[in-house]
Design brief:
single chain, 5 helices, alpha+beta, two-stranded antiparallel ribbon, 19% helix, Jelly Rolls
Length: 269
């Protein structure tokens, strides 16, 4: 079995239900959170920090604070194995499609949680598979993350045309509220006839919304550094190939391997 892991690996805003909702390698984790309430007069939470700490950009030349003046901007912190971000993604894509011609710019800031997520080719491949065509700032050194004082995957920051942060959303959920903020900021900018209806999203697979009321499993990881309740027959063999056998039946929250697998520190292969 694996050694005990440190479960205090993230800071949480609220106590939430979480789930083993993903089955692809390493794609288990993150958190569901709730947005702060919007008001008729959106507050000013701060100024858009510099983006110069990004080590590379995908789908765009490097963007700057000055160059973004005059646009309504969403900054979306993500990492491609985060199940909570995956469930948020279809809404972000829909907002881009609906509002891009009305002055909205979305920038995804990819800040990796795992070492393999620092590989830009992996980020590029994941963004292509997930149909992300908006600009991506590759934040391997956490420079943009620290500039925002961010602590969550996923996180959304809503910026007005004057470069001021007017709203935020930590974690998945709050989609109607977030879209109302987009509409309000576009209207403030002088955009005419901003559509008031919400986008219609039909998410499937990993992007489908979780049924939070019926979940009975906490989050888990597949690499030996953070996993628990591994239940294949025999002991786990770390960092080298091994032929595993799954038990005939698993108890709730247990997981197992069947076949030839290598259990690494952060992922399986």
């Amino acid at each position: 079995m694996f050694e005990e892991i440190n479960r205090n690996r993230r800071s949480f805003l609220t106590t939430t239900v979480q789930t083993i909702a993903a089955t692809q390698l390493g794609r288990l984790g993150c958190t569901k959170q709730h947005a702060t309430p919007t008001t008729a007069e959106l507050p000013i939470e701060g100024e858009l920090p510099s983006l110069v700490g990004a080590i590379a950009w995908l789908n765009s030349q490097p963007l700057t604070v000055d160059g973004l003046r005059g646009k309504v901007v969403i900054i979306n912190f993500w990492t491609y194995t985060c199940i909570n971000w995956l469930r948020q993604l279809p809404y972000v894509r829909a907002w881009v499609e609906k509002y891009k011609d009305q002055g909205l710019t979305v920038i995804g800031v990819h800040t990796p949680e795992f070492e393999f997520e620092k590989n830009i080719d992996n980020v590029r491949r994941a963004s292509t598979e997930m149909r992300i065509d908006y600009p991506i700032a590759v934040d391997n050194d956490y420079a943009v993350w620290r500039a925002f004082g961010n602590r969550y995957w996923p996180a959304l920051y809503f910026i007005d045309t004057q470069g001021r942060i007017r709203h935020h959303q930590f974690g998945e959920g709050g989609y109607e509220q977030s879209e109302r903020v987009i509409q309000q900021l576009l209207s403030e900018s002088g955009t005419d006839r901003v559509a008031q209806e919400a986008v219609a999203v039909e998410a499937r697979g990993f992007e489908a919304t979780a049924d939070w009321n019926s979940l009975k499993s906490p989050e888990n990881y597949l690499g030996y550094e953070r996993t628990e309740n591994f239940s294949s027959s025999g002991s786990a063999v770390l960092n080298k190939p091994h032929l595993y056998t799954a038990p005939a039946q698993l108890q709730r929250n247990q997981w197992a391997l069947s076949g030839d697998w290598t259990i690494g520190r952060q992922a399986l292969s």
